[in-house]
Amino acid sequence: MSSDKSVQVAVELDDATVLELNRVAEVDGIGHTDVIQRAIRFYLDHGENYRRLLTEGAQSWEHYKRKGLHVTGEEVDAWLMDLEAGRFDAEPPKCHT
Length: 97
Prior knowledge:
This protein has three helices and no strands.
């Protein structure tokens, strides 16, 4: 969602944060504004993903309470070990009550 409009925002930073901001900007070869914009974008994206994960978790919990279907951690671990060993045709565990 890009826009041609921008808004200036004043932010107070402590000395340690300013030093880190300077270091990151120099290492990345970009300006302070770019570092701050990327950090804000990352924070907003992370928050959105986290909220979606919480919603999906709550929905899964409600589904489990209604249906009782699940797989155990041991079943998932065994399947993942098969995949890690190169057995890519391994069937994922079936849900059960």
